[in-house]
Amino acid sequence: MSEPEISRRGFMAGAPAAAALREPVAVQPVILSHLRAQGDPLRIVTMYRFEPEEVRQIQAAAPELKVEIAVAATREEFRRRLADAEVVYGSLNGADLDHAPKLKWLQAGAAGVEWMDARLRSSPVVVTNCARIFAPGISETAMGMLLCLTRGITKYYFPQFLKRQWKPVGTPRSADHSELAGRTMGIVGMGGIGSAVARRAHYGFDMRIVGTDAKPIPKPEYVAELRDPGWFEEMVPQADVLVAAAPHTPDTDRMFNERVFRRMKSTAY
């Protein structure tokens, strides 16, 4: 399995955001001053190549400590450096723990952590993710891609742009000019990304939002209806736009299958 993509933006902002937003778990919080004897450096190991300014920002986040960041060029070097690591940015598997006797904290480089194996999950290492960090960018991309579909931008206009042409396509009543205003968007998973998509669709495009979420969260004011996952198949036929924003878990694996697609409106996206 390939390693998840790691983002510099995630590490700069991810740790405090993830720590503030994650559900309580049966571990004590990591207090950096407790990780080492006074005067010893905090050693962070990663395979991500931070820019010098990013390294300075990370070090400035804990001015009372000396922070050393070791960037490994290969997987073999990464494992060698794990011997002194108290913090890792990126990803680990259970076998890596044999090389990391001092490890206390793993900061994942993404929001999803489905790549974690059983040994890592059961270890005392505290794992934080980048919950909500990528929501602005992903939700903007989602709306941009939706507009490409509803307005025929990719199908009709991009080829024209490459030829330096501008020719009207269709009419205001044709499928090439579908308006989002008043349409219903169904969102599966109202976490950081799902909520951000819902806000942009409702406030930016006057769409009606319905959704499901596994947690009993309060319904936001921009959502018309929010229910538990059992409502999913009833929600599908209502949606003009169906959005998958749930985490990949055993319960959500292959939930968007042929049966679901056949229940969608023929005009839905």
Account of the protein in words:
With 269 residues, the protein is of the alpha/beta class. It folds into two domains: 8-128, Rossmann fold (3-Layer(aba) Sandwich); 135-263, Rossmann fold (3-Layer(aba) Sandwich), CATH 3.40.50.720. It is built from nine helices and nine strands. The strands form two sheets. It has a five-stranded parallel β-sheet. Strands 8-7-6-9 form a four-stranded parallel β-sheet, covered by helices on one side. α5 packs across α7 (192-205). The chain is elongated, with a radius of gyration of 23 Å. Residues 1-27 have low confidence and may be disordered.
What is the overall pLDDT average?
A: 87
Give the count of structural domains: 2
What level of helicity do the residues show?
25-40%
Question: What is the CATH architecture term of the largest domain?
Answer: 3-Layer(aba) Sandwich
Short synopsis of the structure:
The chain is α/β, with parallel strands linked by helices. It contains nine helices and nine strands.
